[in-house]
Request: fold
Amino acid sequence: MKNRKMKKICRIISVGMLLLLTGCGKSSRENIDAGMEKIAAMEYGPALECFQSAQAKGENERLAYRGMGLAYMGLTQYAEAAEAFEKALSGGDILIDSMDYDINYYLATAYYKNKEGEKAVAVYDAILDLDSAQKTAYYLRGTVKLEMGRYEEAIADFDQAVRLNPKDYAQIIDIYQVLEQNGYKQVGKEYIETAMADGEKSMSDSEKGQMSYYLEDYTSASTYLERARENGKEETILYLGKTYEALGEYNYAANVYSTYLGEHTDSEQMYNQLGMCRMRMGSYAEALTAFQAGINVKDNTLMQTLQFNEIIAYEYLGEYKKAAVLMENYLKSYPDEEAAKRENIFLQTR
Reply:
């Protein structure tokens, strides 16, 4: 019989954040709530202290361990994170609830980040033993297996994830991206081609445009996305701009992003893409302004990427000392990022 900790199910990381930010009354979880506020601000060290205080003061132990796991994840201490999530799971009862779903999701991620692929796969195995309709578990298990070199098993998992919901086009794009990143770009395109053929009548113009973008049919992508532009959705506008970038029309793409940001100043993704577009145009000062505007967005979900791109923009502007100081701080937050380590070596020579 599989370990009881492995059998408890997860759903999705964002759901876990929501559950942790809601629920019990403030009076019984003051330090836990304070810790979650620190996590949202990416202040992982202080967050860990809050959860440790919560534990010492007798607040909900399960939530405290769960929060400690999140803090350790932010500190890239994945072994410690896994241990904390395991303790959080051991504090549950026999009945499986939504919190168990979430914690296992985190546990699998901690194992994966700690290069313990087999343990991550075991978590997904246990999830699927209890509920074979969990398409996200199939997708994630396939992702881990693919990176472990178990190609045929990974494809079987991806196929099952698609079978469970063939109209989940975002997941199909995720599958394409994972395959492309691991050297199977053509196989990934086959998933998209099949989705477009099967969903020709039901797929929206925005979805067709996104799919066409990954098929590198940029002319069709621009047609679909321009048609869908009226919906005003961030995703549609983002792909429209990226399509024009792929066509080499950087000025138009930058205008697409800027126009959207004129009405929606809280889109870190759009600021980042505008910055990347400006970089390709050689407009490094404008790129830096875009990255910094993105960094200032509240409750930012793209902070690491934006901070790294800010450093690169300073490099291109020849401000190596400023870039070096920012890189030193960046590596304190993300010490395991290889690209940053290489960039830091370069900066030390300037």
Summary: Residues 119 and 190 are 30 Å apart (CA to CA). Residues 1-27 have pLDDT under 50 and may be disordered. The longest helix spans residues 98-113.
